Amino acid sequence: MVVMENEEITHPAPPLELQKPPEPEPRQPVMINVADVDFCYGTHQVLFDVNLEIPPRAVTALIGPSGCGKTTLLRCFNRMNDLIDGARISAGSIRLEGHNIYAPDIDVVDLRRRVGMVFQKSNPFPKSIYENVAYGLRVLGVNKKSRINEAVEKGLRASALWDEVKDRLDSSAYGLSGGQQQRLCIARALAVEPEVILMDEPCSALDPIATAKVEELIYQLRENFTIVIVTHNMQQAGRCSNYTAFFYLGRLIEFGATSKIFSNPSQLQTEDYITGRFG
Amino acid sequence: MTKHEMTNDEIMTKHERTPRPLLPSSFVIRHSSFRRRQVVEVVIFWLFRVATYLVLAAATYIFLDIGIKGSRTLFTTRAPFINVPFFTQGPQTLFVFDYEGEKYTLSDREFRAWKTEHPVEVEATSVAYSAGGVWPCIVGTALLVVGSMILALAVGICSAIYLNEYSQNTRFIRLIRIAILNLAGVPSIVFGLFGFGLFVIFLHWNVSLLAGWFTLGLMILPAIITASEESLRAVPNGLREGSLALGATKWQTIRKNVLPYAVPGILTSSILGIGRVAGETAPIMFTAAYALRDEMPWQVQRWTDFVFQGVMALPYHIYVVSSKIPQNEYTERVQYGAACILLLLVFAIALASIVLRERTRGHLSW
């Protein structure tokens, strides 16, 4: 994690409301490049010819009605879909900083280290809070106590959980509230210092207060990470994302700056969905 | 679960508000079938109840019978109240004879000592195996249980992990599952014959601990695999995904984040396996058990001989003393004593497993 203090001074973080960073420029750097992707579960195709360029150090929200393939696409980015029998990308490519992540010589374990994930249902391990955050480093082979301590504190601070749990790091993660558990999962993902963080409806099981905390956290993390978030909640996409991609029936309908998608969408379907006419 | 429990007053008012429906008069008339239906209900109820109580009666009878008759052998009325020779000696022949108006029941060793003191001819009846104790049988059974459980757990857990974590649902894997189910249904005597043919004859292991371990291990393998798979399946998928998403390899995920939470369940299932391994006679009668052996298992010339020696075992000893020797009033002592010890042994091992399980379970809940 690189904290860019200078930038913070020159560009103070805007308030959470509609004030957004500048519109995407035509030739901007791309973190994840999705090109002509078709995706199938067995013989059932769920993604059709998706093209998407996810910019670095920004929050990109994937929205759309249930079953539109947004979670499937998200799980393609760290090859989580490999775990499902018969699931495969049948056409196209996904590139992370220019490298095809489905190339045969790619190290999936290393990919997942660079592309972290937070799941819909918070899934802390039945271990202590400390061990949950340290897990990623331990499987990486880090054994040095001081380094793990440092990473645990950094991860918990970054996920705004440190002050709440610093006195009970050795107690079970299951003793935390739902919102805290989800933030612990974010801390766990942050501790291995990924470049991209994928979030699959991270707030769907949380109450409004916990949701607000997680959203605020997402907004802050944007400065150092590329975040892709799947959400059902349009207000959430509006509040905490810079870019929004709208999916419908396995196709990408529209992608653009969140402010544009929400105020002046170019597609009728997008407008209908955002204004709540369907979905 | 009701969030709000109604107070008495509320129930009353509610009751008053809903007027009692007037029954049509035909509801009150008892049809001719009324009596018959009532009788059928009562008969069915008692049929099921008696069936349930029969189980209880059988269990009580068996445990009381063996417990009472066995405790006559295991315990004595004088200090130290435990029949020490029965636990520490091997089986000996019992000699019964009358001498100068007195009746003697002496074990082999005692009888020889007596004869050196009294150099006379006596007409003694000998009863095989009915003196001494069952110490070598306890040791043999313990060795058989430990060895075969280690074998079965090692192979069983590995294959359960493969089936549940690695394999995909192909036709071949389904065939393997059917094979496991079938293996579970094979009668134990068939396992005994199989072990005899393969390990004892073909591999020249002779009647040995090793052959017994493999035969017993194979016998409980299906149970261990099925139960281990069950325990692995109970571990939520979120833990696997969470671990993999952090850059753990598949094996790291299984080792650190799946297996530890499945172990309590696997231990529970192995309790049943232990009971069967300790109690089965058929699989060991051709492969590992001797009817009588004077040396203890550790009295071998070279340590490599250890696994190639046959042992005495409790279930086989019970079988021998209750069916292979002429029965009389002196044989019951060893029969019930051995049976009681076998029950206690299985009980103790099961208890140990439960304690171990509770210790390892910790605070797992999802």
Could you describe the 3D structure shown?
The complex is a heterodimer of chains A (279) and B (366). With 279 residues, chain A is α/β, with parallel strands linked by helices. Chain A has one domain: Rossmann fold (3-Layer(aba) Sandwich), CATH 3.40.50. Helices cover 35% and strands 23% of the residues of chain A. Chain A has 11 helices and 10 strands. In chain A, the strands form 2 sheets. Chain A has a 6-stranded mixed beta sheet with strand order 6-7-8-3-9-10, sandwiched between helices. Chain A has a 4-stranded antiparallel beta sheet with strand order 2-1-4-5, with helices on one face. Chain B is mainly α and 366 residues long. Chain B has 15 helices and 3 strands. A 3-stranded antiparallel beta sheet of chain B has the order 2-1-3. In chain B, α8 crosses α9 (209-233). Chain B is globular, with a radius of gyration of 30 Å. Classes of the chains: A alpha/beta (279), B mainly alpha (366). At the A-B interface, α3, α4 and α7 of A face α10 and α11 of B.
Shape category of chain A: globular
| Rg calc of chain A | 19 Å
* Share of residues in helices of chain A: 25-40%
Q: First CA to last CA of chain A: what distance?
A: 38 Å
* CATH-defined fold name of the largest domain in chain B: MetI-like fold
Task: Provide a count of the helices of chain A.
Answer: 11
Query: Taking Cα atoms only, what radius of gyration of chain B do you get, to the nearest Å?
Result: 30 Å
Number of helices, where a helix is a run of at least 4 consecutive DSSP H or I residues of chain B = 15
CATH class of the largest domain in chain B: Mainly Alpha
